[in-house]
Amino acid sequence: MSDLYFDESVIHLNLEGDTKEDVLTEMGRHLVSKGLVKESFINAIIAREGEFPTGLPTAGIAVAIPHTDVEHVNRKTISVGVLKNAVDFGVMGDDSKTTPVRLVFMLAMDEAHAQLSLLQSLSNIFQDEDTLKSLVEAKDKTNIKQLLEEKLSLITL
Amino acid sequence: MKKKQVLVACGAGIATSTVVNGAIEEMAKEHDIKVDLVQIKIAEVESYVDTADLLVTTAMTKKEYPFPVINARSFLTGIGVEETKQKILEELKK
């Protein structure tokens, strides 16, 4: 188990893509280039998203939390993508529906069944319309980084 | 009362089931109900058909199981979470 890698370099603003596959490839490639995940991560996460969609309609901005098996991950990280235009993702647990996603939290986890507090904090963000709005409207990566560090309690004092 | 076996499943058994597992654990404690929580991938449900009492999942289930299935997406989005908790509680109290 490694420490969570999180800084501006895994945050993407104005991410463009026509399909969820475009978005996942772009974000995945970036993680590969940083050595945080293995090359196999990209195909694995696309396949997983097809089989088990992760789109979550919220009270405000719809989000997606694509993720895949631990063996594709070198170091634990959360990559954040703020999409320029909404991209349809399948709704988690309901493959007849899609939801227009503006925020993607790509989870690269290196241990199964762990990270409870981190994931709970993340789901708290999904339930907080104001935070979601601030993330989508943020003008620079540092704002997003600071907001998430605070909301996910990433800074250990 | 026999301890109920509750399966908590998502596609990967990594992210969403962890959140749901935590929520049910808390709920059971609150109501003083003992449960045997098993966190698995949805593909592993088959191995538990003879022992499980309930399946709580964020993934799609296309098969029929001999126990009730409750969708748990609400634990992540907060939309309808009280209703979902009630449903789970009812099953646990049976």
From TrEMBL, chain A:
InterPro entries hit by this protein: PTrfase/Anion_transptr, PTS_EIIA_type-2_dom, PTS_SugarTrans_NitroReg
Domain PTS EIIA type-2, chain residue ranges per copy: 4-151
Tree of life domain: Bacteria
Signal sequence coordinates: none
Membrane-spanning parts: none
Residue ranges the record marks as coiled coil: none
Alphabetized PANTHER family for the sequence: PHOSPHOTRANSFERASE SYSTEM MANNITOL_FRUCTOSE-SPECIFIC IIA DOMAIN CONTAINING PROTEIN, PTS SYSTEM FRUCTOSE-LIKE EIIA COMPONENT-RELATED
Name the record gives this protein: PTS system IIA component, Gat family (TC 4.A.5)
Organism annotation: Melghirimyces thermohalophilus
UniProtKB/TrEMBL annotation, chain B:
Key words, A-Z: Transferase
Domain of life per record: Bacteria
GO molecular function per UniProt: protein-N(PI)-phosphohistidine-sugar phosphotransferase activity
Signal peptide from the UniProt entry: none
A Pfam family it matches: PTS_IIB
SUPFAM superfamilies assigned to the protein according to its UniProt record, in alphabetical order: PTS system IIB component-like
Segments forming domain PTS EIIB type-2: 4-94
GO terms classed as biological process: phosphoenolpyruvate-dependent sugar phosphotransferase system
InterPro entries for the chain: PTS_EIIB-like_sf, PTS_EIIB_2, PTS_EIIB_2/3
Name of the protein this chain belongs to: PTS system IIB component, Gat family
